[in-house]
């Protein structure tokens, strides 16, 4: 009797039978399914909002929302339901908020810690861009941005302007050679011309400007001259081709297999897809170049030659900018502090123990963290290349299809001489208007998705953020719910998705009027306000011009969110504007552009909007061919 009382309960324990295990698994799946398909939609705070018809398929409304050619349909939704309404996500039960309401957008974009990118998109970004400002969140992003934004001072812009002008002159020279020599062949002009063409050549503008941007950013960031534009068979040209190949639509770029690689990155190592192989082959050389640049800076510090080489590129400028932060003891993230803790050993290796050398080593360590952690300089170049070259290509395409606008811009540019200092580029009103209209109609980021990413979102949406808490989103314009009740704010639950459709905002008829989808630079003329970008790196326009009748709204300029808004606004948007204007000024001044007959241009999105010729996306990849000839005056 005593032994029975003192026996351990474990003596009677046993493993469940197969039948019991199966019943438990079925019960667990049933509970999860009920929670997913019943509880969440029935308790969703968005359930009473109006919503468009359909969305009952396994993708919900997602296929319509990511369609770059569904603007008219979605614009009709906005006109019918207001600037905020509910849409359905995958499996039709995910309630999501779609909004172009200015106050709602300001709230979402102004609180990045409450609306973060999801881990799914961050993994997708790291696949192509590695670790840097793009995937950083919270304190890490704040510290990185504080340093990086100082790189775009007025003096730095002068340096970058000089480099941009040199590269632009090279591009214009090559384009002139292509027109004068019909036998000249290159990757962006693969078909030879003929004497009867009278100097007209078909040139892939997107391919050419991609190389221009690629070379330019390589020189500006790490002082490396790829020269893939001019020496396309050289080492830089080979590196660029590796980058170009990884941008093509191949197995593993999207779809279920691509998403599985984001969930479990080890799958790509065990069973690599064509996409993962191309990414590894394209990014490997770039990461090595970034690491070599850091090693070179360390060597220059050790040899005491760093000061003589300062301000030649972003990496050198970073050394100066971060020095102050280290000396005043500004807080760093834990990762940055780990770099700094290793500095004492580095100081012994260098052998220069004065304060200046110790500071340089601190800066170089932090430079490692900010600039080349995992090759971030090299990889972030990828998105910048695509965004710059895409904007330039769409601008030239729009002007090629509108000869009168092209002629008007050429007349303005020719009145100012061969080149202009970057400070004077904003003084050309029609050039400024053309660039503003390109940024509006052809945004490089077509949409932002805030909230938990679906497993099917990441290959197509440039940003995805996750709500970190239950919140109330205020509205500037109240909307009616399905019960006829007027609501001026919307409750959102942690984890629910918010679509921030950048392109829809910028072509919405309820914002821009009935001609919203028309390319019309004239809307930006004679608006009675200056549009010159600010000198201070930390400031942004506060009363920028906007066309008559267009309300105030979010963005660097009202209702222009190409460069996003809030604390995550594109840190280099002034540099982007300068470079876009410089190349358009040079090319429109000296060349004429026309569309290629029977070649229709479409667009698709992989982190940024890219052009391609109808029927050639899978076979040739992206491209935007135009007919080019030197301008010879009115004949």
Salient structural properties:
635 residues, alpha+beta, six-stranded mixed β-sheet, three-stranded antiparallel β-sheet
What's the structural blueprint in terms of helices and strands?
Blueprint: H1 2-6, H2 18-42, H3 62-65, H4 71-81, E1 84-88, E2 95-99, H5 102-110, E3 115-117, H6 119-129, H7 138-148, H8 154-180, E4 201-204, H9 205-222, H10 235-245, H11 255-263, H12 266-270, H13 274-303, H14 314-328, H15 334-341, H16 343-350, H17 355-371, H18 376-400, H19 403-414, H20 429-441, E5 448-450, E6 464-467, E7 471-480, E8 486-492, E9 497-500, H21 502-506, H22 509-512, H23 573-590, E10 591-595, E11 601-605, E12 609-613, H24 617-620, E13 625-630
Parallel strand pairs: 2-9, 5-6
Antiparallel strand pairs: 1-2, 3-6, 4-13, 5-9, 7-8, 10-13, 11-12
Helix pairs in contact: 8-9, 8-23, 9-18, 10-13, 13-17, 13-18, 14-17, 15-17, 16-17, 18-20, 18-23, 19-23
Helix residue percentage: 40-55%
Q: What gross morphology would you assign?
A: globular
Structural class: alpha+beta
Q: pLDDT below 50 for ≥5 consecutive residues: which ranges?
A: 324-382, 449-462, 528-544
Mean pLDDT: 78
What is the CA-based Rg, rounded?
Answer: 27 Å
Approximate strand percentage:
5-15%
Task: Measure the end-to-end span.
Answer: 117 Å
Number of helices: 24
**Secondary structure tally: strands:** 13
Task: Record the strand order, biggest sheet.
Answer: 1-2-9-5-6-3
Sheet with most strands:
6 strands, mixed
């Amino acid at each position: 009797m005593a032994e029975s009382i003192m026996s351990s309960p474990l003596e009677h324990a046993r493993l469940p039978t197969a039948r019991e295990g199966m019943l438990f698994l079925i019960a667990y799946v049933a509970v999860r399914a009920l929670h997913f398909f019943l509880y969440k939609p029935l308790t969703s705070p968005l359930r009473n909002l109006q919503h468009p018809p359909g969305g009952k398929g396994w993708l919900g409304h997602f296929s319509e929302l990511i369609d770059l050619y569904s603007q008219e349909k979605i614009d009709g939704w906005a006109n019918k339901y207001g600037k905020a309404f509910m849409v359905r996500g995958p499996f039709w039960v995910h309630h999501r908020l779609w909004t172009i309401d200015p106050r709602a957008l300001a709230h979402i974009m102004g609180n990045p810690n409450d609306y973060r990118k999801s881990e799914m998109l961050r993994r997708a970004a790291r696949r192509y861009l590695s670790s840097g400002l793009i995937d950083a969140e919270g304190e890490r992003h704040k510290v990185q941005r504080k340093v990086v934004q100082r790189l775009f001072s007025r003096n730095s812009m002068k340096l970058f302007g000089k480099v941009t002008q040199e590269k632009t002159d090279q591009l214009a020279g090559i384009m002139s050679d292509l027109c004068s020599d019909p036998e000249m062949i290159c990757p962006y002009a693969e078909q030879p011309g003929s004497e009867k063409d009278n100097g007209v050549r078909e040139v892939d503008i997107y391919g050419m400007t991609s190389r221009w941007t690629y070379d330019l950013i390589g020189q500006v960031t790490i002082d490396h001259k790829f020269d893939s534009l001019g020496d396309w068979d050289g080492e830089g040209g080979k590196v660029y081709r590796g980058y170009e190949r990884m941008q093509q639509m191949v197995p593993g770029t999207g779809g279920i297999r691509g998403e599985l690689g984001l969930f479990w990155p080890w799958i790509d190592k065990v069973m690599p897809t064509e996409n993962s192989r191309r990414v590894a082959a394209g990014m490997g050389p770039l990461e090595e170049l970034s690491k070599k640049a850091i090693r070179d800076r360390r060597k220059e510090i050790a040899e005491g030659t760093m000061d003589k080489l300062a301000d030649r590129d972003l990496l050198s400028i970073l050394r100066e900018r971060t020095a102050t932060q280290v000396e005043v003891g500004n807080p760093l993230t834990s990762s940055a502090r780990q770099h700094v803790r290793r500095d004492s050993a580095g100081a012994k290796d260098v052998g220069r123990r004065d304060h200046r050398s110790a500071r340089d080593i601190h800066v170089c360590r932090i430079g490692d963290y900010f600039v080349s952690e995992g090759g971030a300089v090299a990889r972030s170049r990828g998105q910048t290349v695509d965004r710059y070259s895409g904007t330039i290509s769409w601008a030239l395409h729009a002007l090629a299809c509108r000869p009168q606008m092209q002629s008007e811009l050429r007349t303005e540019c020719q009145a100012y001489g061969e080149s202009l200092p970057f400070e004077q580029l904003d003084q050309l009103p029609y050039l400024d208007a053309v660039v503003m209209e390109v940024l509006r109609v052809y945004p490089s980021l077509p949409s932002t998705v805030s909230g938990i990413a679906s497993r099917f979102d990441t290959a197509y949406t440039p940003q995805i953020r996750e709500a970190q808490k239950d919140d109330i989103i205020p509205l500037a314009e109240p909307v009616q719910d399905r019960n006829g009740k007027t609501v001026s704010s919307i409750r959102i639950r942690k984890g629910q998705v918010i679509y921030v459709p950048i392109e829809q905002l910028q072509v919405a008829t309820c914002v821009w009027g009935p001609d919203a989808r028309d390319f019309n630079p004239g809307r930006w003329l004679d608006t009675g306000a200056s549009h010159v970008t600010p000198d201070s790196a930390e400031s942004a326009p506060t009363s920028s011009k906007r066309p008559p009748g267009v309300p105030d709204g979010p963005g660097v300029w009202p209702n222009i969110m190409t460069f996003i808004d809030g604390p995550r606004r594109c840190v280099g948007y002034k540099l982007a504007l300068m470079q876009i204007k410089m190349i358009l000024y040079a090319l429109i001044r000296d060349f004429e552009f026309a569309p290629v007959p029977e070649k229709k241009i479409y667009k698709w999105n992989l982190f940024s909007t890219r052009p391609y010729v109808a029927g050639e996306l899978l076979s040739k990849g992206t491209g935007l061919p135009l007919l080019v000839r030197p301008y010879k005056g009115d004949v």
